[in-house]
Amino acid sequence: MEPRSEDVSRKSRILQALEDQNTSVSFEDALENDMILNMGPQHPATHGVLRLLIRLDGETVVGCVPEVGYLHRGYEKLAESSTFHEFIPHTDRLDYLSPLNNNTAYALAVEKLLGIEAPPRAQYLRVMISELARISSHLMFLGSLAMDVGALTVWMWAFREREKQYDIFENIAGARFTTSYTRIGGLAQDVLPETLAMVKKFVDELPGHLKECEKLLNTNRIFLERTDGIGVIPPEQAIDLGLTGPGLRACGVEHDLRKANPYLVYNNLDFDVPVYSGGDALARYYVRMDEMRESIKLIQQVLQKLPAGDVHAFKPKKVLPRKERVYTKMEELIHDFMIVNFGIEPPVGEIYSAVEAPKGELGFYIYSNGEGYPWRLKIRSPSFSNLQSLTTMMMGCMISDVVAIIASLDPVMGEADK
Amino acid sequence: MGLEHALGDSFVTTKLDLAINWCRKNSLWPMPMGISCCAIEMMAFAGPRFDAARFGSEVFRFSPRQSDVMIVAGTTTYKMAKVVRKIYDQMPDPKWVIAMGACTSSGGMYRTYSVVQGIDQFLPVDVYVAGCPPRPDNLLNALITLQQKVQRGESRGSFPAYVGDKKLNEAQGLPIISG
Amino acid sequence: MNSKIVDALKSRFGDQTVEATEFRDELTVVVPTEKIVEVCRFLRDDPALKFDLLADLCGLDMYTPVKRFAVVYNLYSLSHKHRIRLKIFTEEEDPKVPTVTGIWGTANWHERETYDMFGIVFEGHPDLRRVYMPDEFEHHPLRKDFPLMGIPGSLPLPKK
After folding, report:
1. Ordered domains of chain A (ranges, CATH)
2. Assigned domain for C22 exists
3. What residues contact C3, with CB distance under 8 A and at least 6 apart?
4. Which structural domain range is residue B11 located in?
């Protein structure tokens, strides 16, 4: 192990930041001191590699500094060296609990830059997979919130449902998760009728299973006492700190990008946006449970309204052509070669495109200078902004509530650290 | 492994060794170092469908002091490497390491400035699992391979290290892995 | 809608300071660096515009000899549901930009990230330190002259 003298001799700047927060109280008594606790990057309840430095007065939290960056993989620099198509597998690993949603968000951003649109069948299928990804992410939230406050059974049940979803994703895209299913201008391949039957069976059975989990939790005194009134954030502060997604809807602010700035075909579909006021962990739990039910409604509507047709747009120089045409026709062969080697060449300009990911607003800001590689790709990840509100939520609560608050906020470090 | 030092090679210790290794292999308690996407597949590996508990890994001890094998699941960055090494050093002997996924084996799809290109640059690894992420059945295969290694009495991490039939003497320490 | 926003900005700040372009129905406005705090405060407080959510703040390395770095602010209005993008430019030598953490609290971490990745210093920031790379790291990774593979030896690794 390396020597620690350099840590001891230099006061860490992060401890400096912790002490400079407005929490200073002075006591004459030597026993009445604040303790700084390191809830390190490796911890069973921090949902990934999040480091928290917590300042405690006894058992009460008086200050908290989150430290991120333990999973910084250099996505934005990687995007500057890969073509637009080569970046699609990297978007899977951003919010790794709902990879299909990230694929859709990225494809929409690049299509906006190019000015093309996917055909209607592809758009309906994209809605279906985004909502399936939302259910998958919220099931994981349910399992980890319940596990973190002590109910291990619900975690097992949630994982059983997620395994059924993994079977569906394997049928759609070939991989359990990390699917890389969308392409610029459409989808990789079409969906088989057996897969649609599997999806229908899954969403018909899911409400029953959700009811079983709720029977264990909703009137459970331990669960209610551990989440009610814990981690409260007022709505004005939530907007100021950039909290989006279910966290904002649990504060009473009705904001959902699927209704406010509709993308894909959400304005043809009928669904509600659950909003609860209260701003605490229990409200966030209720919002996500109701969102799962709305997603089920959306998927059932998509299955009824799915039009027949192509899943690729036909734009010769911008969209990768289909393989059977590449092997038989000359122009498609040339276009395939040019697109794979030099990348699609978008016009010079910059766009920002955002979708409603399960965690919040996932946005891509792309600045292109006409080449096949983006000049700058910035990923606006919801977890990075949501984690800033952790300090406000943790003021004044006990050390054991910290775990419940992080679980109710549901951060994913893969996207917070990019 | 420590028994040979105390009693020397003899019939009794060889048979006792087999029995002890059999016990060790059937109760490998993993310490899940779940960092990113592979951690989700590791949770599925402990979940109801691909049950790891039936192979002896009943409890996933998040405390390094009470575990045998560390499953490193996820991309290791330079900032995180210090932490992983510290946790590894806190595990008691004999210990093993499973490098799960492409990112831990060789850096994976991230050839960037902040990702360590393979955890074998700072940790001795016993089993590498390929995949991005590897399916839970693949990880079960790795666990069974590790169990066969434990039955033979090999461990790269313990001191002195046992690799194959040879016992490296204490002056040599750990074997050198090239690359 | 976009033209209304541009008219409101021009009437408040004058025609010369505000340059607006539109691409794919999105409005980008370039303002001088020293006026950014006033412009942001006006955009947040004016009842017809009401940009209360700072969706994104990022840096941009244009790699030109003059005005190398840009800082891009993507704003969103929750009540009127429209977006705007603000851009300011700064030089390569000693890039300094005033902070907007007094207007939107979420700018805190975003500005730290921009400092970490590009080296742009935000004056008045309460806590400007690195967020992704370790504190001792000396380079700024997203600049165009930093190699993708990194500089060997710039980050320490524990011994085997």
Report:
1. 75-416 (1.10.645.10)
2. yes
3. none
4. 2-160
- The predicted-structure confidence for B3-56, as pLDDT tens digits, reads as follows 555 666 666 667 787 888 888 888 889 888 888 888 888 888 888 888 888 888
Give the B window 38-97 contacts with A, CB below 8 Å: 39-41, 43-44, 47-49, 62, 74-75, 77, 79-80, 82-87, 89
Task: Check if C144 contacts B (Cβ < 8 Å).
Answer: no
Nearest-Cα distance to chain A for C149, in Å, is 10
In this structure, is residue B176 part of a structural domain? no
Structure tokens at B126: 């016993």
CA-to-CA distance for C58 and C72, rounded, in angstroms?
Answer: 5
pLDDT at position A129? 92
The enclosing domain of C100 has a CATH number of: 3.30.460.80
d(CA C18, CA C2): 14
Tens digit of pLDDT for each residue in B79-114? 889 889 888 888 888 889 999 999 899 988 888 988
Q: Which residues of A touch B85 (CB under 8 A)?
A: 1
pTM of the model: 0.88
Q: Which domain holds residue C55?
A: 2-123
Residue B66 DSSP symbol: G
Q: How many domains does chain B have?
A: 1
Structural domain includes residue C145? no
Angstrom distances, CA of residue A16 to CA of A321, B176, C101, C113, C125: 56, 41, 19, 19, 15
User: Domain for residue C98, yes or no?
Assistant: yes
Residue A22 CA, chain-centre distance (Å), reads 32
Q: Tell me which residues of chain B have a C-beta less than 8 Å from any C-beta of chain C.
A: 78-79, 81-82, 85, 111-114, 116, 121-124, 174
The per-residue pLDDT for range A166-188, each reduced to its tens digit, is: 999 999 988 888 888 988 888 88
B114 and C159 within 8 Å at the Cβ level: the answer is no
The predicted pLDDT at position B56 comes to: 85
Residue A193: exposure state from Cβ atoms within 10 A (0-12, 13-18, ≥19): exposed
In a domain, residue B168? The reply is no
In this predicted model, what pLDDT tens digit does every residue of A139-155 receive, in sequence order?
A: 999 999 988 888 888 98
User: pLDDT tens digits for C114-130?
Assistant: 999 999 999 888 888 88
Peptide bond into B133 cis (omega under 30): yes
Q: Is residue B110 part of a domain?
A: yes
Of C28, C105, C133, the CB nearest to A69: C133
ipTM associated with this complex: 0.93
Over A241-310, what HEC string results? CCCCCHHHHCCCCCCCHHHHCCCCCHHHCCCCCCCCCCCCHHHHHHHHHHHHHHHHHHHHHHHHHCCCCC
Q: State the helix-helix crossing angle for B37-46 and B136-152, rounded to 10 degrees.
A: 70
* pLDDT value at residue A11: 55
Q: Check pLDDT > 70 for residue B132.
A: yes
**Number of separate domains in chain C:** 1
Yes or no: say if C81 and A261 are a contact pair by the CB < 8 Å rule. Answer: yes
> What does the radius of gyration of chain C's CA atoms come to, in whole angstroms?
17
**CATH for B77:** 3.40.50.12280
